[in-house]
């Protein structure tokens, strides 16, 4: 911190930045109100107050706005939009306003008739050292800047506010001055403003209705999650917990219940991230349940459940027959390889017996299949993801025998190796190809089943974790997501789509006491 | 004032650099690539349609022809809207920031704005691109924790890829403005 006299602050070529809303470019003459940020030497103009007005009432109004929004709004300058030729009396009147609302520096922007050129000048009465000040006029879209959310970098632990983006002050100013935009041209009052809502305040009926409906809905959801919490507690005991962990359906149900708890928690979201997360979970649940009900309505029509149950048993029979053929092939001379006959026969008969057991079990269940499927299909109303998980579990149960074959041969060969291998290593070496072949065949079959299950789980995870709300918001109103809400990059460089068109003009402030305006520079481009 | 000069890109295609000085601390530099040529468009279309006719002669299904027409149309729209960049421009405003705009052939514009507080420097870097070594201009972003460090490198003019002579012109213009912020300390640092 340098301790220096005040006037050293005005060093050469200090640039003054004026942020002007694009909605005011066609407004009638008046005075500009907004916020002056002295650290960045910039003025953010929020609205234009039209003639006639009483200065005392304007100051009162600004005081109230300042109290409500905590934004230091003040009168910054004058705006003149004369349809005819420039009137000298008007310009002198506007300069005299600078004495009533004293503000340092006093900005004067004017636009003449149909000309494309704007002229902008500043009056500095108290500058001891008048410099050549350059003015940059930034034209901004008020609605988009107001609705944009700038997300700060995540690691702001040690930095504090000094390193925060300077432009965030501009966005902050406009966003917090929402109460200023509530009065429009049709309101009766002493102050007539022009801003982006001045043609009539915009609002959405659907958004308001949803806000009203969200309170009882969240109460209901919190009740539901409370009851399910108790249910979850019961299921933690063994052996139910073992079954719980094996079946992916139960895991998915637990996951969804957790989501429900997140949404129905009564405390409001702390920051933007939490709000987006809640919204994403909510939309994802909604779409899930909608798709599930759609699936259910399709499944229960035209007795599809019955057809499904009818085809299930023949398919299981067919698979078992194929497996038996495969085992017969392995027991012979598979692919021309010569196996150890004794071990081959033993293993082959062992597995044939197990398949026979399995087929009898399936035939035993066959009368009940349809009923089971019917009740299980009802659970699809809990969501498409639950239905997919149930499908995956059914596949797992039906191909349970392949799983069993593969693990049993793995364990058999392991024990065989360990026990006899210490005694008869050579014999075991020659037995290895046989067991390896059986293991290979069954592992390949199991791999097929695992791939199918994996694809189903991938789909379920996709539905669970896709941030649909953010995606839809991005497609429909892209300015809301300006910033880093979707990626965790630390920098704050953001898409500044609301800022369009920058005009700069080289301006000289008039000497103290002289308040004549300079002519517009022919270099100035609109 | 605006001036336009012709250069060559890294692949030998003629490009034009237009420099406009709006004021002492504001410059706009735009690199314009060549427009979509009629001969390349007709070559691509004829290739697709010849292939479609060949398939039609093989399988006698007229669906192939309509599919070829759809593919051509949609491919052209996608190319013009998402791939073909007509003009890339750099707007440097001292004390505000740097704005990088890409204008596509369909009229779409994509903009990125980087605040001046985050810009460490603008440099010319070398890179190995396929089998060539090319030069490219990039903006170095300041690392908030480490004053000497660089947190990100933002490459510029990636689709027009100008050669070193054009890059030097752009580099000089940018450095003139970036130097101003070093000689004129901001009022936020002096309290």
Automatic annotation (TrEMBL), chain A:
Gene Ontology CC annotation, any one: membrane
Transmembrane segments: 281-300, 346-366, 372-400, 412-432, 438-460
Chain spans, region Disordered: 507-526
Keyword Lyase found: no
Coiled-coil regions listed in the entry: none
GO biological process terms on file: GPI anchor biosynthetic process
Signal peptide, first to last residue: 1-26
Residue ranges with Basic and acidic residues bias: 514-526
Keywords: Membrane, Signal, Transmembrane, Transmembrane helix
PANTHER family, alphabetized: PHOSPHATIDYLINOSITOL N-ACETYLGLUCOSAMINYLTRANSFERASE SUBUNIT Q, PHOSPHATIDYLINOSITOL N-ACETYLGLUCOSAMINYLTRANSFERASE SUBUNIT Q-RELATED
Descriptive protein name: Phosphatidylinositol glycan anchor biosynthesis class Q
Species this chain originates from: Junco hyemalis (Dark-eyed junco)
UniProtKB/TrEMBL annotation, chain B:
InterPro entries for this protein: PIG-H, PIGH-H_dom
Pfam families in UniProt: PIG-H (PF10181)
Transmembrane regions listed in the UniProt entry: 62-82
Phosphatidylinositol N-acetylglucosaminyltransferase subunit H conserved domain segment(s): 89-158
Record's keyword annotation contains Transmembrane: yes
Any one GO biological process: GPI anchor biosynthetic process
Keyword Signal: no
One Gene Ontology cellular component: glycosylphosphatidylinositol-N-acetylglucosaminyltransferase (GPI-GnT) complex
Keywords of this entry: Membrane, Transmembrane, Transmembrane helix
Pathway in which the depicted protein is active: Glycolipid biosynthesis; glycosylphosphatidylinositol-anchor biosynthesis
Protein family membership: Belongs to the PIGH family.
Protein name according to UniProt: Phosphatidylinositol glycan anchor biosynthesis class H
Species assigned in the record: Junco hyemalis (Dark-eyed junco)
């Amino acid at each position: 911190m340098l301790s220096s006299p005040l006037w050293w602050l005005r060093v050469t070529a200090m640039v003054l930045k004026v942020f002007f809303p694009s909605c005011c470019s066609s407004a009638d003459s008046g005075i500009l109100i907004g916020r002056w940020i002295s650290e960045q030497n910039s003025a953010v103009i929020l609205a234009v107050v039209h003639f006639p007005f009483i200065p005392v009432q304007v100051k009162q109004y600004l005081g109230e706005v300042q109290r409500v929004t905590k934004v230091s709004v003040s009168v910054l300058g004058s705006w003149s939009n004369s349809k005819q030729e420039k009137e000298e009396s008007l310009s002198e009147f506007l300069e005299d306003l600078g004495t009533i609302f004293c503000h340092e520096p006093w900005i004067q922007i004017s636009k003449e008739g149909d000309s494309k050129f704007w002229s902008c000048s500043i009056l500095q009465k108290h500058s001891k050292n008048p410099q050549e000040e350059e003015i940059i006029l930034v034209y901004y879209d008020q609605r988009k800047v107001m609705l944009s959310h700038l997300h700060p970098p995540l690691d702001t632990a040690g930095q504090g506010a000094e390193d925060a983006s300077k432009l965030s002050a501009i966005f902050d100013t406009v966003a917090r001055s929402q109460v200023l935009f509530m009065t429009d041209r049709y309101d009766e009052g002493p102050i007539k403003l022009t801003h982006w809502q001045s043609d009539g305040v915009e609002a959405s009926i659907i958004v308001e209705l949803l806000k009203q409906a969200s309170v009882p809905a969240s109460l209901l959801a919190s009740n539901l999650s409370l009851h399910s919490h108790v249910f979850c507690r019961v299921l933690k005991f063994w052996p139910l917990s073992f079954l719980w962990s094996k079946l992916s359906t139960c895991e998915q149900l637990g996951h969804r219940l957790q989501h429900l708890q997140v949404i129905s928690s009564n405390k409001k979201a702390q920051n933007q991230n939490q709000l987006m997360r809640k919204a994403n979970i909510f939309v994802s649940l909604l779409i899930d349940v909608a798709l599930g009900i759609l699936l259910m309505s399709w499944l229960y029509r035209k007795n599809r459940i019955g057809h499904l149950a009818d085809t299930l048993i023949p398919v299981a029979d067919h698979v078992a027959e194929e497996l038996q053929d495969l085992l017969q092939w392995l027991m012979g001379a598979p692919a021309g390889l010569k196996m150890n006959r004794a071990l081959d026969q033993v293993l082959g008969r062992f597995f044939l017996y197990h398949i026979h057991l399995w087929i009898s079990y399936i035939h035993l269940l066959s009368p009940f299949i349809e009923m089971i499927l019917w009740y299980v299909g009802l659970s699809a109303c809990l969501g498409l993801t639950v239905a997919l998980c149930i499908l995956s579990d059914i596949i797992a149960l039906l191909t349970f025998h392949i799983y069993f074959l593969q693990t049993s041969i793995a364990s058999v060969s392991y024990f065989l190796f360990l026990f006899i291998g210490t005694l008869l290593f050579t014999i075991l070496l020659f037995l290895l190809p046989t067991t390896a072949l059986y293991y290979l065949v069954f592992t390949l079959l199991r791999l097929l089943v695992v791939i199918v299950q994996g694809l189903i789980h991938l789909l379920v995870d996709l539905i669970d974790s896709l941030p649909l709300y953010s995606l839809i918001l991005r497609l429909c109103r892209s300015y809301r997501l300006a910033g880093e809400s979707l990626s965790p990059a630390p920098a704050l460089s953001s898409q500044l789509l609301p800022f369009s068109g920058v005009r700069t003009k080289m301006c000289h402030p008039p000497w103290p006491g002289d308040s004549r305006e300079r002519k517009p520079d022919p270099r100035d481009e609109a | 004032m605006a001036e336009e000069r012709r250069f060559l890109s890294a692949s030998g295609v003629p490009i034009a650099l237009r420099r406009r000085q709006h004021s002492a601390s504001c410059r706009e530099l735009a690199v314009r690539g060549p427009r979509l040529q009629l001969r390349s468009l007709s070559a691509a279309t004829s290739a697709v349609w010849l292939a479609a006719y060949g398939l039609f002669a093989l399988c006698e299904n007229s669906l192939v022809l309509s599919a070829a027409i759809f593919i051509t149309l949609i491919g052209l729209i996608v190319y013009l809207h998402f791939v073909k960049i007509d003009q890339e421009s750099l707007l440097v405003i001292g004390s505000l920031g740097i704005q990088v705009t890409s204008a596509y052939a369909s009229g779409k514009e994509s903009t990125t704005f980087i605040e001046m507080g985050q810009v460490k420097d603008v440099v010319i870097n070398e890179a190995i691109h396929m089998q060539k070594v090319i030069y490219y201009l990039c903006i170095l972003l300041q690392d908030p924790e480490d004053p000497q460090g660089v947190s990100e490198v933002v490459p510029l003019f990636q689709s027009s890829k100008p050669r070193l002579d054009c890059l030097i012109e752009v580099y000089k213009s940018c450095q003139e403005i970036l130097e101003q912020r070093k000689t004129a300390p901001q009022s936020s640092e002096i309290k």
